[in-house]
Amino acid sequence: MVRKTRAIFFTLINLMENYIQIEITPIEESDSAIAIAELSEIGFDGFLEEEKILKAYCKESDLQKEALNDLMNRLDLSYSLSILKNENWNTIWEANFSPVQVDDFVGIRASFHEPMIGVQHELVITPKMSFGTGHHATTFTVMQLMRSIDFKGKKVFDFGTGTGILAILAEKLGAEYILAVDNDDWCIENASENTLINQCKNIEIQKVDSVNDAWRFDVVIANINRHIIEANLSNLSAVLLPHSTLILSGLLQSDETDILSACKLLGLHHQQTSAKDGWVAIYLTKE
Questions:
Q1: Residue 229 CB burial class (10 angstroms; 0-12, 13-18, ≥19)
Q2: Alpha carbon distance 236, 120 (integer Å)
Q3: Which fold has domain 147-286?
Q4: Distance between CA atoms of residues 222 and 106, nearest Å
Q5: b/e per residue, 21-60, with b = 16+ CB within 10 A?
Q6: Spans of all domains in the chain
Q7: Which among 29, 64, 136, 210 would be 20 to 30 A from 56, CA to CA?
Q8: Under the phi-then-psi rule, with left for phi > 0, alpha for psi from -120 to 50, and beta for the rest, what region is 43?
């Protein structure tokens, strides 16, 4: 059997602090998606998937042992825990970063990979520890939906930009202006670097914690998680212009019904859902 290794995401890593690694095994891929979503809510910010193995990481100071044990008991999973001393996390990340191809639409690679052929758009991403390299199903499915949207001359809001990968794709698809925001200093730095690598001209990057209700956009993309989406859904709807588009991701398939119900109350119309590995991205419009 070919061993599968996939780096899901990393957020800000404090190189002066030890990290906790938990290893959950055995685990099925469908259960892994649920575990990642739940673990991200209790302080874990890095994940590696291997064949029937999930490794999750958090700063030693962020470990919530009681919450972790409760979660593992609820999901009927067992884990082992180890402390990782200060390491070169970028080396680990790069070693697990492989090129990604979204159909024949987008290819994502690092600068140390060979150019990709047979794709309409190629994105070069510095594989630092920010969410959004295309490996995870949430980013992959958003890109699939972006293929069917007309971005030419549009104003785009990328809420929770991470590496900036979706903002970069929006510019390549013809967007006139993209506001890409995040609340994490590392993400702001990484997204800024990636926009330069891809020679982007129309992307503005800001560090913000909330949606400004004075903003107005033709396309809004929020690839985060259910709790942040639910907390900001009303504001995300409010910044949409008439006849505009909203893409929501970072959601499990089990979240879809509740999210669509909340969207319907805000006058948002469901057009399409893209699903992969237990995750969904939802395409909605505001008439």
A1: buried
A2: 30
A3: Rossmann fold (3.40.50)
A4: 19
A5: bbbbeebeeebbbbbbbbbbebbbbbbbbbeebbbbbbbe
A6: 6-89, 147-286
A7: 210
A8: left
Compute how many other C-beta atoms are within 10 angstroms of the C-beta atom of residue 112: 10
CA dist., res. 139 & res. 100, Å (int): 11
Q: Say which CATH class 6-89 falls into.
A: alpha beta
Residue by residue, DSSP assigns 107-173 as: EEE-TTSPPP-S-SEEEE----SSS-SS-SHHHHHHHHHHTTS--TT-EEEEES-TTSHHHHHHHHT
Q: Which two tokens stand for residue 23?
A: 């290893």
* Bridge partners for 59 per DSSP: 19
SS3 42: helix
**Mean pLDDT, 10 residues at a time, the chain of 287 residues:** 40 58 89 88 82 86 94 95 71 73 94 92 79 79 97 97 95 98 87 96 95 95 92 96 96 94 98 93 96
Helix axes 165-172, 185-197, angle to 10 degrees: 30
Assign 87 to helix, strand or coil: coil
6-89 and 147-286 in the same fold: no
